[in-house]
Amino acid sequence: MKTLKLLILASLPFFLTSCLVTRKKYDIAEAGRLAAIFSRDSVEDLLAEKRVSYDALEKLYNGLKVDTAQLRDGIRNYQTLLNANKSERDQLSNQLNSKLKELGEREETIRQLRGVIDEQNARVKSLLDNVKSALTGFSSDELTVREEGGKVYVAMSDKLLFESGSATVNEMGKSALGKLAGVLNRQTDIDVFIEGHTDSVPIRTAVFKDNWDLSVIRATSVVRILTETYAVNPLQIQPCGRGEFKPVDTNKSTEGRARNRRTEIIIAPKLDKLYELISAQ
């Protein structure tokens, strides 16, 4: 018994030491376990928090994707509109340039026409002055000179040119035509129209069937004097008869009928340049 007690007493320090070591390891292990639990909870909390943040970011990302897609579609639509507008602007610009070019061409044509018209007016004025100067010394009931519509009209009465009922030009008429021929021969770019006119009193003789006949033959007689006696270019002259159908006064009075019995010499500068410009349009 005594021996047993001694053995127990001898083993007691070792046992106590062993218990102390085991307790210490236990505390360390328990502390590690608790730390691990707390650490896992923290990580899980962190992960949960991060998951929430990730979900929010993903939601934001998806929203941004949708917005970006819509923005891209909008930009594409705007680009399409811009391209369409650019095409339309280009078309309008081309049309504008074409119209501006056409306007420039028309303005140039107008300028040229204005130049030709001014030149024609100057020629007509010069021609009128020359004819008036050449035919001085005749009374107004023998002949008149006027300008109308870009032409010079010389109206010679029948008493200046012809005997009554005759188509033969008398000497005074030949003198007047000779003075006029001097002006015509200095003009190379004119047309001359000889028009015979009568009053409305009917005529019928062995020579003339009617007033038409008389007016035509008188116009032809004047042409012959101008071309054969005074060498006016026959290609410049065209005779015609108007009869009583283009009066300048009434046929109900003696004075009016006298004015209607006339031969008109119409001098017109050629309009070749004007015709060329018009034809080019």
Task: Name the beta content range.
Answer: 5-15%
Q: Determine the fraction of residues in helical runs and give it as a percent range.
A: 55-70%
The CATH topology of the domain at 116-279 corresponds to: 60s Ribosomal Protein L30, Chain: A
DSSP strand count: 5
SSE class = alpha+beta
CATH architecture descriptor text of the domain at 116-279: 2-Layer Sandwich
The average pLDDT score comes to 81
H/E order of the elements? HEEHHEHEHEH
Walk me through the structure.
- By secondary structure, the chain is an alpha+beta fold.
- The chain has a domain at 116-279: OmpA-like domain (60s Ribosomal Protein L30, Chain: A).
- It is 66% helix and 13% strand.
- It has 6 helices and 5 strands.
- Strand 1 and strand 2 (151-157) form a beta hairpin.
Question: Could you give the topology of this structure?
Answer:
Layout: H1 2-134, E1 143-148, E2 151-157, H2 158-161, H3 171-184, E3 190-197, H4 211-229, E4 237-243, H5 254-260, E5 262-269, H6 272-279
Parallel strand pairs: 3-4
Antiparallel strand pairs: 1-2, 2-5, 3-5
